[in-house]
Design brief:
By secondary structure, this protein is α+β, with helices and mostly antiparallel strands. It has five helices and nine strands. A seven-stranded mixed beta sheet has the order 2-1-5-4-3-8-9. A two-stranded antiparallel ribbon has the order 6-7. Helix 2 (about 85-100) packs across helix 5 (about 195-205). The radius of gyration is 20 Å and the shape is globular. It starts with 5 loop residues before the first helix and ends with a helix. The protein binds nickel (II) ion. The site of nickel (II) ion has 6 residues, from helix 2.
Length: about 210
C-alpha cells in the first residue's frame, strides 16, 4: 500500500502547476511592463533597449542594413505575408498614417520585416509591400538574420498549428516602431492605434 494516495498526488501536482502558472504570469507581466511602458504611449525604461542593427534582403535581392536609413525616421513592422488579417490591417494602417502626413512622409521610411523567412522569399516580400505605401521596404533573410532583427526589436514570433501541414500561421507580436534619424527608439504603436493617432504622434517627432 502506498503512503501517498492518488488524490493527494494530484493535489500536489495541481498546486505545483498553479505555482508555476503564477510565476510565469508574474514574469510575463513584468516583461510586458518593461516593453510597453506604463501608459503605452510614452517610452518606458525598457524601450530605450528596443532596436539595433539588422542585415536583411529586400525585394530586389539587395542586402539592406539599418545603417542606410540614418537621417530618416524608420516606421518598422514585423509580420508575414501569409497573415490573414492582422499584418495587412496594420500595414494599411501605416500606409494611411503616412498618407495623412503628406509631403512630410518623405522623412519617414516604412519598413516591413518578415518573421516567416521560410515562405517569405525576397520576391514574395517585395511584391507584397507594393500593395501598400509606395516606397515601403520589404525585408526578409536567413532564419538567423531574421531572428537577430526580431530579437533586437523584442519581437516575439512562433510558428503555430501543425508543423507538418503545408499551410501554417505564425503567432507574432504586432507593434509598429518609430525609430529616429539616429536609429534610436522613439515610440511604438500597439495594434488598434488609429492611423489618425499614429500620424499625429509621428508628426510631433518630425
Ligand atoms: Ni500577422
Amino acid at each position: 500500500m502506498s503512503s501517498r494516495s492518488p488524490i493527494r498526488t494530484w493535489i500536489v501536482f495541481g498546486a505545483l502547476g498553479l505555482a508555476a502558472l503564477l510565476a510565469v504570469g508574474i514574469a510575463g507581466y513584468a516583461v510586458m511592463g518593461l516593453l510597453v511602458g506604463r501608459d503605452g504611449a510614452t517610452p518606458g525604461m525598457g524601450e530605450a533597449l528596443v532596436g539595433g542593427p539588422f542585415e536583411l534582403i529586400d525585394g530586389e535581392g539587395r542586402t539592406r542594413t539599418d545603417a542606410e536609413f540614418r537621417g530618416r525616421y524608420m516606421l518598422i513592422y514585423f509580420g508575414y505575408t501569409y497573415c490573414p488579417d492582422v499584418c495587412p490591417t496594420e500595414l494599411q494602417n501605416m500606409t494611411n498614417a503616412l498618407d495623412r502626413l503628406g509631403d512630410d512622409a518623405a522623412e519617414v521610411r516604412p519598413i516591413f520585416i518578415s518573421i516567416d523567412p521560410e515562405r517569405d522569399t525576397p520576391e514574395v516580400v517585395g511584391s507584397y509591400v507594393d500593395h501598400f505605401y509606395p516606397g515601403m521596404v520589404g525585408l526578409t533573410g536567413s532564419p538567423e538574420a531574421v531572428a537577430k532583427a526580431a530579437k533586437a526589436y523584442r519581437v516575439y514570433y512562433r510558428r503555430a498549428d501543425d508543423p507538418k501541414a503545408s499551410e501554417y500561421l505564425m503567432d507574432h507580436s504586432s507593434i509598429v516602431y518609430l525609430m529616429g534619424p539616429d536609429g534610436k527608439f522613439l515610440t511604438h504603436f500597439s495594434y488598434g492605434t488609429s492611423d489618425e493617432e499614429m500620424a499625429a504622434t509621428i508628426r510631433k517627432f518630425l
